[in-house]
Structures are given as C-alpha cells and as structure tokens.
Design a protein that fits this description.
This is Shikimate dehydrogenase (NADP(+)). Keywords: Amino-acid biosynthesis, Aromatic amino acid biosynthesis, NADP, Oxidoreductase. Pfam families: SDH_C, Shikimate_DH, Shikimate_dh_N. By secondary structure, the chain is of the alpha/beta class. The chain folds into 2 domains: about 130 residues, 3-Layer(aba) Sandwich (Rossmann fold), CATH 3.40.50.10860; about 140 residues, Rossmann fold (3-Layer(aba) Sandwich), CATH 3.40.50.720. About 40% of the residues lie in helices and about 20% in strands. The protein is built from 10 helices and 12 strands. The strands form 2 sheets. A 6-stranded mixed sheet has the order 2-1-3-5-6-4, sandwiched between helices. The chain has a 6-stranded parallel sheet with strand order 9-8-7-10-11-12, with helices on both faces. It binds NADP nicotinamide-adenine-dinucleotide phosphate (NAP).
Length: about 280
C-alpha cells in the first residue's frame, strides 16, 4: 500500500520504458513486505545533472543508472566504491543521507550467475566476446576473480584498450584475440567458459551468433548476457554441443540482486525476481 512512508527507488536512462528493473524490484519489495516502490524515469543526457540532483531533493533512496548515463553520471556523485572507480562506470546509486555513492553491479551479477554452474572461477580459462559497457564490467570482475581471461571484439582496438586497462589496474595478463572464426575456435578448444557480452543474437536479430556448435565442446560452460530472447541462438548452439548454458536473465537478476542488497542490506529473493522478470519478458 503506497503511503506517506513509502520509500522510492528508480531507474534513470534514455530510453527506459522497456526496462525490466521496475518489475523485478517491485516483485522483490512485495515478497519481503517492504513499503518501497520502484519507478522508471526517462532522463535525457542534457538533464542528467538535474536528474541526479533530484535524487537528493526528493530523497529517492536508491537508483539504477542505465544507457547512456553509466559513465557521465560519475561527474555528479559524491563517492564511488572501489570497483566502480576502477572500471569508471556506475549502474547503482545509494543515497546515504544526501550523499550519493556509486557502485557497479553488472560484473558482480555476471560472476554470481556463473557461480550457479561453475564452482571455482579462479584459474578458469574464459573467452569473453565484446568490449562494450557490459563487457568492461564483466572483464574486470573476471580478472579480479583470478580467471585467465581472453578478450575478443569486432573492433580489435577496443579489446586491446580494455585488456591494457585491466593489466594496468589489476596486474594480470589478458590475451587479445581477433574476432575471426578460426582464432575463436582455437581459443574455445582450450577454454572452460565462453561468454557473449556483445549484442549479437539480440531481438530482432535473434538468429545471429558469433560461435556455432562445431566450435564448442561438451566441457564448456556457455553464458550469454543477451536476455531477449532468453534462449539465444548461441545457447541453442551450446546445447547442440552438449555444453552447459547460463542465460542472460541470470545476470540481469543477479546484478539487480546486488543493487537490492546494497540498498536494503537484505538478501534478495532471487527466485521471485527471476520469475517476475521472465514473465514480463515473455509477455512482451
Ligand atoms: N544480462 C544483463 O544483465 C545485461 C546487462 C547489460 C547489457 N546486456 C546486454 O548486453 C548487450 C551489450 O550491451 P552493452 O551495454 O555492452 O552494449 P555496447 O556498449 O553498445 O557494446 C556492444 C558490443 O557488441 C559488439 N557488437 C555489436 N554488434 C556486433 C556485431 N554485429 N558483430 C560483432 N560484435 C558486435 C560491439 O562491438 P564493437 O566494439 O566492435 O562495436 C561491442 O563489443 C546488449 O544486448 C544488452 O542488452 C545484458
């Protein structure tokens, strides 16, 4: 029941109307009986400063930040947690009595999703496809977790820049792989985990994939971060190769769970969040 005591949470982005975060977080708030409400605000780049200022003015307790503001928002926050500072992007803000603290939960969400199928990421050999915003957060989290990381990207210079940045900040080696089928095939043959962090395979181009079943093996764990559709072509190819799979919904839910835990200090009801998000996705 919304009342004068209801605490407000939000997502800010542009566009934001299709975000699944309101459905996911409101389901979690309901499940735990919290008098909290999560809404979506479309905030243009030119209004971002005012948007962030309104978090203080309206005493909004927590905010998710999405495309295209994850980097620009750093200019308007009071503090950053260590990981957000390292990668230079924020997707979660906590309002601590008017002080705005920025976090990044994308990479941690991906690691939590991976841990559903992989016991130990330390020393696991991982091929990450992509060097965009999501890939960046995942790559840093993997490197911090001790994975042996290879990065491949269509624009090779972006893979090189990301690898350079990780090597500088985490002092670990990262391999740079050109996005060519024969190169990928060789790396995958030796890999434990393959992650697609590109937008390839996303609706409406859902028949596209960068890797097919003949390039995979049955000991591989294949994770796609694309969640629309939930079962992407890449995951279907992985099933053909008898590899284990993790869908993009898992990361979405786990990064949301991380934000939820930062805001509330309580464990997130993962199953409820996943069910609500999946239903919203399936109903279009
Ligand atoms: N599951 C989750 O929680 C979650 C979270 C965040 C994002 N996502 C999804 O992840 C995907 C990427 O998001 P993002 O924010 O990282 O986007 P982004 O910053 O725009 O990066 C897009 C990435 O995809 C690559 N790419 C795009 N089209 C390609 C093609 N035809 N062939 C090869 N590579 C291609 C880009 O390569 P270039 O550098 O060469 O352009 C880049 O690496 C989206 O589908 C998004 O919905 C999921």
């Amino acid at each position: 029941m919304i009342s004068g005591k209801t605490k407000i949470f939000a997502i800010m982005g542009d566009p934001v109307e299709h975000s699944l975060s309101p459905t996911m977080h409101n389901a979690a708030f309901r499940e735990l009986g919290l008098n909290y409400l999560y809404v979506a605000f479309r905030v243009s780049s030119s209004s971002l400063r005012n948007g962030v200022e309104s978090i203080r003015a309206l005493n909004i307790k927590g905010v998710n930040i999405t495309i295209p503001h994850k980097i620009a928002v750093l200019n308007y926050l009071d503090e950053l947690d260590e990981f957000a500072k390292m990668i230079g992007a924020v997707n979660t803000i906590k309002n601590e009595c008017g002080r705005l603290r920025g976090f990044n939960t994308d990479g941690k969400g991906a690691i939590r999703a991976l841990k559903e199928k992989v016991k130990d990421i330390r020393d696991a050999s991982v091929l990450l496809l992509g060097a965009g915003g999501a890939a960046r957060s995942i790559a840093f989290s993997l490197a911090k977790s001790g994975a042996e990381l290879s990065i491949s990207n269509r624009t090779f210079s972006k893979a090189e820049d990301l690898a350079d940045s990780i090597e500088r900040k985490i002092k670990t080696k990262v391999k740079r792989i050109p996005l060519k089928q024969e190169k990928l095939k060789k790396v995958i043959a030796e890999a434990d985990i393959l992650i697609n962090a590109t937008s390839v395979g996303m609706y409406p181009k859902e028949n596209e994939t960068l890797v097919t079943s003949d390039m995979m093996h049955s000991d591989l764990v294949v994770k796609d971060i694309v969640y629309k559709p939930v079962k992407t072509r890449l995951l279907r190819e992985a099933e053909k190769a008898k590899a284990d799979t993790i869908d993009g919904l898992s990361m979405l839910v786990h990064q949301g769970a991380e934000s939820f835990e930062i805001w509330t200090g309580q464990s997130a009801p993962i199953d409820v969040m996943r069910r609500a998000t999946k239903e919203a996705l399936e109903s279009g």
